[in-house]
Give the backbone structure.
Amino acid sequence: MYQKKKERLYISALLEDPAVTYPAYYLLSSSLLKNEMLMTALEALHRFDFRYYETPRSHRDIFAMFASGTFPIYKEKYIVGYFGGKMMYLESQGWRGMPVTDDIFEMEHWLVC
């Protein structure tokens, strides 16, 4: 099976002076490297600038973001995407399946815009 080539997006290349430097890079496909919504979410996360984000009123707000192609933030630490019917969070080595825990159902852990 053909695997898409992934590239490293270094936070230092995205932002001049990030407030949060960990992780130092993300492994992303070339199509996601061009995704402006993802880059905006990563900038907000690494600048720790959540002025355009708010706590969702319900899970519908989170799924509305997925439907619009934007990315909510979980626990002010992870960008979350919805791919192939699965919620996934972005870490340094790429997208990982999000484990279902009680915390996921707590709306105060989420930020939506």
About this structure: The CA atoms of residues 18 and 81 lie 22 Å apart. The mean pLDDT is 94. The chain is about 25% helix and 25% strand. Helices lie at 11-14, 30-33, 36-47, 59-68.
